[in-house]
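Researcher: Quick test of sequence recovery. Tokens follow.
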């Protein structure tokens, strides 16, 4: 096990009706906030009215910025930064899923900075401070509600890059599984895939003697496998949605990554895919991750066989652990297909063959991805092509 420092200061408020506490929680941090959300679904479900009422009752003034979308855009972040500065706002309240939360975090770190917020993503500058962020979660998926990271897409060149630091932990996050009841089943499936991938990025590690965190990872993945399909088949199943929502938070709050290297190559490859084609992040991960696994599993067949056995219940073949490992990958694909995810690139992606070398090159522009196995552009191209057929 490696040395580590674990920090997660985000206050989690979990359970039924907890969105009604948002005003009192926000008032502890600010009396004037930016209310940031997505395309308007929170208005259709009535959540917007509940949040606004709670803010008013707590004496919190708010200015609205809607429009956060999947693969959140830098242009909206810049608009939000200007709005926050002009209105004298000192706190951001994100109501939505990972896109609204990541966009809110990016606005929060951009406001105190005199330069362009994109400088942080290209390593031209390092964040020193940020405004506070609060969250009312509506889509369990990205784990951004209690993580120290965010991802933003720059439309100029279609770069999708990540940023991380202690500044990005939300001050509080409200997690009410009831708020997921109206989600389309495809969105639920994308969220399940995203959180499952967050655990796998940490599970496939070169660090030895990490038995405890291995078991934590395996437990979260098994819980997702058990409860995810229940949530999809009956989105109003509170118990299933509660398990899935808590899995999403635990998958990405850094706990299961303590004392071990994490990989993140599959996320980097997916970011290039969804930056160009605007594929839902979870669907992109369903396409990329099995292809990555097929490319790298021989690097540590024993770990892949352990994954197959402990997560998917494959009988461990001690005479042929490679067969066990490959069966585990096959069962992951079967699980993803069973919840409605694609496991190959759609046939209608325009100029995908021509864009594969471009995506591979862009994935290595700052540094080549991968810790479990360090990848170069040629290997990345092979992984993308494995995902074609």
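Model:
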């Amino acid at each position: 096990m490696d040395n580590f420092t674990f920090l997660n200061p985000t206050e989690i408020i979990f359970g039924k009706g907890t969105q009604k506490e948002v005003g009192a929680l926000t008032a502890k941090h600010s009396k004037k906030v930016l209310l940031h959300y997505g395309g308007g679904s929170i208005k259709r479900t009535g959540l917007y009215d509940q949040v606004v009422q709670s803010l008013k009752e707590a004496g919190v003034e708010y200015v609205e910025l809607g429009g956060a979308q999947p693969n959140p855009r830098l242009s909206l972040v810049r608009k939000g930064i200007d709005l926050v500065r002009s209105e004298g706002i000192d706190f951001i309240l994100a109501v939505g899923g990972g896109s609204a939360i990541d966009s809110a975090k990016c606005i929060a770190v951009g406001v105190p900075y005199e330069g362009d917020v994109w400088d942080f993503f290209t390593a031209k500058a390092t964040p020193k401070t940020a405004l506070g962020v609060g969250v009312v979660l509506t889509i369990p998926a990205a784990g951004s509600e209690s993580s120290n990271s965010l991802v933003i897409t720059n439309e100029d060149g279609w770069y999708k890059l990540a940023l991380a630091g202690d500044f990005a932990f939300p001050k509080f996050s409200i997690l009410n599984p009831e708020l997921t009841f109206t989600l389309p089943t495809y969105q639920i499936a994308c969220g399940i895939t995203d959180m499952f991938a967050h655990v796998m990025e940490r599970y496939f590690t070169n660090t030895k003697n990490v038995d405890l965190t291995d078991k934590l990872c395996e437990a979260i993945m098994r819980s997702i496998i058990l409860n995810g399909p229940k949530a999809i088949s009956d989105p109003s199943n509170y118990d299933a949605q509660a398990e899935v929502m808590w899995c999403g938070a635990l998958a990405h709050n850094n706990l299961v990554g303590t004392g071990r290297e994490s990989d993140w190559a599959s996320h980097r490859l997916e970011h290039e895919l969804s930056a160009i084609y605007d594929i839902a992040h979870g669907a992109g991960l369903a396409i990329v991750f099995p292809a990555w696994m097929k490319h790298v599993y021989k690097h540590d067949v024993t770990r892949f066989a352990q994954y197959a056995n402990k997560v998917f219940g494959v009988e461990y073949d001690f005479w042929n652990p490679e067969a066990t490992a490959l069966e585990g990958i096959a069962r992951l694909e079967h699980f993803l297909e069973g919840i409605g995810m694609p496991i190959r690139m759609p046939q209608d992606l325009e100029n995908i063959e021509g864009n594969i070398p471009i995506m591979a090159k862009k994935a290595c522009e700052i540094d080549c991805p991968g810790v479990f196995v360090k990848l170069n552009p040629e290997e990345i191209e092979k992984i993308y092509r494995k995902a074609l057929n």
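Strands lie at 11-14, 32-37, 61-65, 91-96, 132-137, 149-154, 159-164, 172-175.
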